[in-house]
Amino acid sequence: MKIKRNTIFSYLIRNYFILIFLSIISALVFSYFAIKDIYLDALNEDAETDLILLNESLNENIIENYELLNLKIKDISLKIKKRITVIKKDGSVIADSEQDYKTMDNHINRKEIAEALIQNKAYSIRYSTTLKMDMIYTAAMFKINDIYYILRISRTVKNNEKMLNYFKKNIFITGLLLIIIMTFFVYYFSRKISVPVIKISELSKKASSGILDETIYFDKSLYEIMSLSENFNIMTASLNERINELKTEKEEINAIISSVKEGIMVVNNEGRIIRYNDSLIKLFNREDIDNKFYWEVIRDNELNDYIKNFKKNNKNKIKEIEYNNKILFCSMNHIEYNKTYIFIFYDATEIKNLEIIKKDFISNVSHELRTPLTAIRGYIETLMEEETDKSKIKYYKIIERHAKRLIFIINDLLSLSKLEEQKDQKMVIEEIKLKKFFKHLKILFQDSLSKKDLKLNIKLNIEIIKSDMFMLEQIFINLIDNAIKYTDKGKIKITADENADSYILKVKDTGIGIPEKDIDRIFERFYVADKSRSRKSVGSGLGLAIVKHNVLQLNGTIDVRSVPGEGSVFVMKFPK
Predict the structure, then answer these.
(1) What is the pTM of this model?
(2) 105 and 46 share a domain?
(3) Are residues 79 and 158 in the same domain?
(4) Radius of gyration of the chain from Cα atoms?
(5) Bigger pLDDT: 445 or 36?
(6) Pick from 225, 261, 358, 460: most CB atoms within 10 A?
(7) 547 within a domain of the structure (yes/no)
(8) How far is CA 286 from CA 279, 290, 335, in A?
(9) Range(s) of the domain holding residue 49
(10) Average pLDDT in the 428-440 region?
(11) Cα separation of 275 and 90, whole Å?
(12) What is the C-alpha to C-alpha distance for residues 36 and 167, in angstroms, rounded to an integer?
């Protein structure tokens, strides 16, 4: 059903016209009746004057002589052109200028007569049964000597209708002129109010379409309209400025995105690509990307499954994938307010190749150095056994200590390289009895603990976990060894707990602790937080790197909490 439009102009002119029309009609009707009452009051006053004059022309002889009385009032009636009736106090008619008084009814019940007997004068308009028409009656009671009588003058209403019709006609013409004049003013003022509103409405519609270069100005006779137009102009100017700023920012952002070497892809909630840059086109070698589904552009099942899972979980993640002989890092983020997903693809092929070269170099060098260092250590031991000079033995021991340190570092490097080479190999997941597992480790470190008079406390709230025995063993060997190196007194505590999802394993010591600035770097290769301690102890700086590598391989997490001077705690969580 089509809804009829009700404009402000039609609304104003319709309602104002109805209001003015009703007001004028009401005023005219009230005026007519008021003028009519005034006119009739004037007629009544004129009749009362005639009654007084008539009474003065009468005397006792005339009143008592009915025939003479009738002749007298008929003569006066002809002069004043009004009907005259004389009525006794008992209501009987004794004279009338138009009818035979002898045949007339008693008038005691006539309204004007009854009121005149009480108030001395009266006035009424009623139907005359004698003359069969509406009449205007004015009556007054007089007294001559002891004789009371009522004089009454009557006129037909018809004789006064001409004057009343004249009033009606003039009142109607006046009302019509007022309606025409007021209609003109209503139209003028309605237009004066509605035109600016319509103009502002039109410009608002244009503004919603982005056209903000028009302004409006109105005269100052209507303050609200003038204020509205000024505020509208200020609003459009401000919006225009904001839009220009946003356009500039958008151009800058587009220029920045276009210049970024990483491939950027923005996907809506349906999975369609709504924004991308040139680097993405080059990376996936596709031109027709706009509004395509991401799985149409990225032909890789592993990555598409990963993106699908990310959209379900909405957690920021970084994924390493191999695509068309390239190694890509994919960073994923979710923007909540507009339900979009941002994916950034970084081509890490060269970096990965460099890492492979570096690993190969370290592995090859380590293998090459291992044999001569072993030979050096063997010859030093032989020289120490044959040497009797204590001063020379001192230097041999220094050489031997540093040779051992180098061999230790090379062994750790080879172990780490071997682990990294085997990271894609299938792990052997088995049930590990923790009590037996830690009993073996305690025996392994018994001598080291005894030398420093340290205690190793093991508290197990779970008996069995499922993991890779070799990797778990390497983790705890390195963590316990590290704790012994940096703890001079106190104890080392190992705990094992679980929750609904994970195994929670902790290694806590009462050692020197780790400074806050070093915590984020302790898992880097060769990084040692306490340089002075590292020189005194035989360590490669690779133990925690091996720990971190194995924890990640087991899909776990590791966290470090430490207070310098009080100790450290390593917390590991492994999924069940």
Answers:
(1) 0.41
(2) yes
(3) yes
(4) 60
(5) 445
(6) 225
(7) yes
(8) 10, 10, 25
(9) 10-163
(10) 90
(11) 114
(12) 8
